[in-house]
Amino acid sequence: MRGILRIGYRLLVNDRGKFIALLLGITFSVFLMIQVTSMFAGMMKKASATVTNTGAKMWVLDSSVTNVASSIPLPDYVLDAVRSIHGVKYAVPLYSGAGLVRLKDGTYQAVSILGLDDTSLFGRPVLLQGQISDIYAENGFLVVKDEEFGKLHNPGIGTEFEINDNRGVIVGIAKVPASGLFGMPTLYTTFSRAVQYIPSMRYTVSYILVEPASDAAIPGIKQEVAKLGYESLTEAEFIDKITHWYMFGTGMGINLLIMTGISFVVGLSISGQTFYTFVLENLEKFGALKAIGAKGRELVYMILFQAGITALAGYGLGVGLCALLIALAKFRVRDYASIITFNNLGMALGMVLVIASLSSYFAVRRVLRIEPFDIFRG
Amino acid sequence: MTVGVAIQAVGLSKWFGSGETRTQAVKDVSFEAAFHEMLYIVGPSGSGKTTLLSMLSGILRPSAGSVRVEGVDIWALDENRIADFRLHKVGFVFQDYHLFNKLTTVENVAIPLILRGQDWNDSLKEGQKYLEVVGLANRANLPPSKLSGGEQQRVAIARAIVSAPDILIFDEPTASLDGDTGRKILEFVRTKVLTEQRCILTVTHDDRIYEYADRILKMEDGRLIGSEKGGAHA
Ligand SMILES: Nc1ncnc2c1ncn2[C@@H]1O[C@H](COP(=O)(O)OP(=O)(O)O)[C@@H](O)[C@H]1O
Ligand SMILES: [Mg+2]
Known about the structure:
The complex is a heterodimer. Chain A is of the alpha+beta class. Helix content of chain A is 54%, strand content 18%. Chain A folds into two domains: 2-46 and 251-377, no CATH class; 75-229, no CATH class. Chain A has helices at 2-14, 16-47, 49-54, 76-83, 191-197, 218-227, 235-249, 252-292, 296-332, 342-369, 372-377; strands at residues 58-61, 88-102, 108-116, 126-130, 140-144, 160-163, 166-175, 186-190, 207-212, 231-234. In chain A, strands 2-3-8-5-7-6 form a six-stranded mixed beta barrel. In chain A, a hairpin with a 2-residue loop joins strand 6 (160-163) and strand 7 (166-175). The two termini of chain A are 27 Å apart. Chain B is α/β, with parallel strands linked by helices. In chain B, a hairpin with a 6-residue loop joins strand 1 (5-16) and strand 2. Chain B is globular and about 50 Å long. At the A-B interface, helix 1, helix 8 and helix 11 of A face helix 1, helix 2 and helix 3 of B. Magnesium ion binds next to helix 1 of chain B.
């Protein structure tokens, strides 16, 4: 059996032109699929940045909220009600909104603003410079040093600015795991200052962050929050909800689907075609092998092996190429979003295996139909 | 000199098609072939020679009759066993050779051994020996497409005999060769390939090579119509 696989390998690889065409087809297709899905994954990571950066186990929100950036304020009584739910260890408010910063040179810059619970500062970022307690100082704000930091003209501790006609001063430089989708710098301050400085509606609490007493308490909390007419989600569920919305509530999903579909079709048509042609060209020879004494089953394994090698080699090349390009792009463009996730890799692998299976299915059918007698008659 | 009966065909018949187009390509053919015999089957085109040869060699199932090779009724075996029978007992030289141009010449020769599950490198070594036998040792690493017609025929012969088969099958071995080359090949087969443990069946209608046959069976319209001694005993 190993022998006939080796014959198959030699036949495939020595057919230089076709082998290269096969590899290119798969490589290109994998490259496109991973490229487009990584882009999406990267954007989703940014879209959920506030959620990941805050690090709360559970979020209470208005069930109409589609993504973390467009919050719907909650009445204050909800906070008290949540605090009294059995199984809630503690619950704190989070303010999430946007403001306009007027820079020294008179230009304006939109920023996102997070207001942390005054007593606990739950969800605060890691500080690179400054003291966290300075956030309580007059007009104190923390600024996140991410790719958007430069848009505020690289402020330092003590830098003053105007925010929605109030004075602000930078008291700390922070870092966060993920930066946002909209290319805006991020400022942190206390909940009360945020509410005071940023014009808001009657209700001021954007989200309630909940620490459950234990994981077992989560279902109970969800039920109680639902009774209040609100929704509570774990961190992962909230990220899923956001991703789902971008996917299906905007045009992104359908575009993603179209691009992935196109990549798949490109791969299938180039590689499937070529592989089928390869098998057809060798059909008589395979028939001769059958006449000599190769069994149908052995020829099938040979074909599957050939398709498998091509698929995996092409997959590897495609993934490598994509990783290389993303690395290069990130090197040049710091907030280039793409991230290759295991899901993307798995999905592309699945697609490639589908391409390989479809191509070899038709090839195998042809090979099984060869009659050695027809070969013998010439 | 003759060791014994290699092939015994009894009442072989083959029909093709069905209904209106049903035709009988081989009609009730019986004969025996011995070891150390070079047996020709001759006759006009369409007389059923290839069909008969295929039934004798385990390639085409007869509509009626039986084939015994070394006493074994081959058509009583299942598909896999018949494939094994071909792999272990029969060597084929196809009319248009069917060599793989994407493999080297020596790899082509080694194929039957590789299919038998023999180690790759051992198979190639053995293949090389048989390339020497057919005088093509220096062509081992070229693709067959680089060789002349006569050389390709010899490669096909080397491939057919590399696994030391008891039965050797040639279909129109000289069809695509010029007269001289054809005669040289058959002379080579007669003197070097025919052994005491081997029976060679050759289909041809090239009378220039009759001199190498022990016996010549004549076919016409699917029937055996006679047999005569070949030139080897003239
Ligand atoms: N697969 C087939 N289907 C239908 N008819 C066939 C088939 N194979 C051979 N025949 C017919 O059987 C007859 C004998 O063919 P063949 O054995 O190839 O003759 P030969 O080898 O003597 O030229 C021919 O009339 C041919 O047309
Ligand atoms: Mg014929």
